[in-house]
Amino acid sequence: MAQNTAPPDPKLTKEILDFCRHAAGSCHVVAACIRSDYGSVLPTVKTIVQVLVVVHDFQPRLMNYVKVFGTTNVSVLAVDEWVFERDVDRGFLGEALAGALIFPYVALTNQRYLYLQEIRLKKRLVIELLQSLVLDFPELSYELHIKPKYFMYEAMLMRGRLFPPTLYALTSLIEGKERQKQIECVLHGFMEALKELEELGVIYNSKGYFRISKQFVDKSKSLKARFTDLFRTGQRALLTSSLGLFPQILNALSQNRELFLGLQKTLGEDSKTAQIEDPQNFVFVPTATGLVPLANRMEIEAFARKMLSRDKHAEVKVEKIGGILNDVYLVKTFSKGTCKKAVVKRFRDWSNFKWFPLSLWSVGTRTFAVLGSSRLERECAINRLLDSNGFTVPKVLHVSPSERLIVMEHVEGEDLSKVIKRMANSKNAQEIKQDLDVVERVGKTFAGVHALSVALGDTKPENILVGKKGEIYLMDFEQASRNGDIVWDIAEFLYYSGHDISPFVEVSRLEQFAETFIKGYLKAGGDVKALKNAGNPKYTKVFSVFTFPHIIFILSNVCRKAEQLKV
Description:
The chain is of the alpha+beta class. The protein has 3 domains: 10-281, Beta Polymerase, domain 2, CATH 3.30.460.10; 296-409, Phosphorylase Kinase, domain 1 (2-Layer Sandwich), CATH 3.30.200; 413-565, Transferase(Phosphotransferase) domain 1 (Transferase(Phosphotransferase), domain 1, Orthogonal Bundle), CATH 1.10.510. The protein has 21 helices and 20 strands. Strands 3-4-2-1-5 form a 5-stranded mixed β-sheet, with helices on both faces. It has a 5-stranded antiparallel β-sheet with strand order 11-12-13-15-14, sandwiched between helices.
């Protein structure tokens, strides 16, 4: 439990408990503890002991007392049992009271009661933090690997952001002489909470890391959960002041002017907060080269030397190879006569004029992820999902969410748009058949992806590569999502392919192309209804900007007759 091993002087303990019973009057003292979450001990400043006492049926509900025992200043915060437990269970007072159980504390009486309340509190906080991760990383949350220390540091920092005096308590915990023992005490309660949540199916253990269950992710992604998360943050900030608790706590501190001034000075030191461990160092994203923490800030050249060549003296060349809405680079390392390559994407926010036409063209049909951070986590999450289910995708080698960078395997092959152009223009029957075979395999691949309830989101032929051994590589998942619009995938692939086909192509060749894709999709178990819906005006109107109307008409007509192509 989050309890210091060294209790205070027995005489002082007795005097404090006697005063607590006096303050409670005829009411029963349920439990009492010395709390350390307000930074009670500062360098060169007199000590003030903060005591929390829980009283059954305490009529004032909440009362603060200041008492001097010998040379020790003691601030006693008495709270009604019902109010305290509501703060534990639902953050009734923004954890202004229950927060004492997050940090190390010393039980003066009824240690068992305080321990049970600590586990209840930490269990709720873990659930809230998991929900926040899901809302911040709706696609990537399925893949995140989490160390227990994440919950400990994030819970304490969250409290510090809303009530700054606790930041000093946190730095004291990290820098103290008994640092490891203190951290283990705090972490113990979180570990117990995690065990209970594992039994409930909220999380599961995977090789020493905790991962969020699919059921919990799906539930947390609802709009209700998003609203609850926003409300919870505001509730913590408002209730501590609106119910008068925050002024009472500050009043207790101001009883000792020297302490209060020392606290203000300490909180003004940026170096103190900078020493606090970043919680995101304990949340990891899986890549082909291992787990990478969310807090990672490695730059492109540093990654290349570390991961591609493992030679810190290797020559690194970074070449921009494209990207209108993102920055895309080809990175090469040269070491001992060997050249290794990787592709790097830096995700920018689409808040400028470049994004406006795409939004305008697709209005009423398709919405797009705009923020760079959102697109990066989709790219990484869907890539991992497809890779784990046997689809051929470029391996994710490294990811840096803080820098909005993702590094992927460089794949050699032929862009599918070139295959489609060749198929449309060729006079060689054997060549046409080979290219149509590729198109059919693309249809089968789409059906397999859709069977996972995944929509790729951006299925232009340029985002599909035919490898040297004939593999169908799927690429660019920044608009992909679980339970997305699979009809859009079909429509974009067919109608954008029409953009690469000459307006003078034979109608039969165009129909043959669409029919081949559809047959492949249906052979692999694809949904015929989705194919038929791709022929609706809702989708055809979007691509009228890119593709000639008569080509769109021919392709959409084949889609509407998809049922006739079912074998």
